[in-house]
Amino acid sequence: MFSGTYEHTIDAKGRTSLPVKLREQLAQAGEASIVLTRDAHSACIAAWPRSAWKKVEEKIATFSPMNRVQQANLLRFYSAQHEVELDVHGRVLVPPALRQHGGLQKDVVWVGMVHTIQLWDKARYEAEMSKQLAPDEVIDLFAGAFSTGA
């Protein structure tokens, strides 16, 4: 399970280091590569462990070529996917189209999102984090976690 927020940089060639903690979590899961694609809900890049992406591919394989919505999603997200290997320094090469989609400049933020990892341009991440959620959008993650049972 991926967690944490890590600030890094991306170089002119599109290489950025995957944070050590996230690399360790990938290694513990036996993963040697990640799949990068557009995030479905945000202007960032989603990084999936290869095994998790395989489950997405299995779902995609059930899409009907006659279903316009499914095909639009296939075009938007699946066609943008790139499997990338980490180099010996833990760096990944982010393809130009994904760098453009994510608006990646120099400063980037990796964010652990339980099953996936997000890669954000730092300014976009900070703008997203400054947004307030509506009261009905807030999930009480701790509801009942500390009840005494009395």
Automatic annotation (TrEMBL):
It holds the Pfam family MraZ. InterPro entries: MraZ, MraZ_C, MraZ_dom, MraZ_N, MraZ_sf, SpoVT-AbrB_dom, SpoVT-AbrB_sf. Gene3D superfamilies: Transcriptional regulator MraZ domain. It is found in: Cytoplasm, Nucleoid. Residues 5-52, 81-124 form the SpoVT-AbrB domain. Coiled coil: none annotated. It comes from the Bacteria. CDD domains: MraZ_C (cd16321), MraZ_N (cd16320). The keyword DNA repair does not apply. Keywords: Cytoplasm, DNA-binding, Repeat, Transcription, Transcription regulation. SUPFAM superfamilies: AbrB/MazE/MraZ-like (SSF89447). Forms oligomers. Belongs to the MraZ family. PANTHER family: TRANSCRIPTIONAL REGULATOR MRAZ (PTHR34701:SF1). This is Transcriptional regulator MraZ. The gene is mraZ.
